[in-house]
Predict the 3D structure of the following.
Amino acid sequence: EAQVTQNPRYLITVTGKKLTVTCSQNMNHEYMSWYRQDPGLGLRQIYYSMNVEVTDKGDVPEGYKVSRKEKRNFPLILESPSPNQTSLYFCASSLRSGSSYNEQFFGPGTRLTVL
Amino acid sequence: AQSVAQPEDQVNVAEGNPLTVKCTYSVSGNPYLFWYVQYPNRGLQFLLKYITGDNLVKGSYGFEAEFNKSQTSFHLKKPSALVSDSALYFCAVRDRTGYALNFGKGTSLLVTP
């Protein structure tokens, strides 16, 4: 089954404790992206990657890191989480092809609480 | 910079009635436009997209959207709403030169029996 998986689905942690949220897709997609969803703000893009070893900042990259060492994986790293990073996080992927009109496939989400 | 506005936080409609969820956009040049739906405790699912050509785009679950370049709008429509259509709907825009995708804040659709 074609899908985007995220782990963990739920995480409660404390300020300053480094964490990683994993994202993996099995569709051989070049493009992957991370979003956070907050009430009243919709989805905001954190980082995206156009292919292996190619990443770029989205609208809200502060406090986050990403890496793209393999095509299928795109982990989101919070080196020192803070309470304002409490949010619902989504990973997404799409084909890149020759243009940017391909729809994105979303993972189920990771609900993160930072105390 | 590109952006999307969804002017209504919530839309209420009776089952069987037509529904419209509004979206306006701002982008330099011609846009790619998308609608996604999010059911409770789920990720976003793609509904439909406008790339070029016919201004009326048909998508999943009987939804359609009309691209209006002069009004910079891309409203989502359905002729007859179902209770199961109740969900959160997001409009998104991407310009044709980049890969960043900007989402609106979402509109909660409630269809009552």
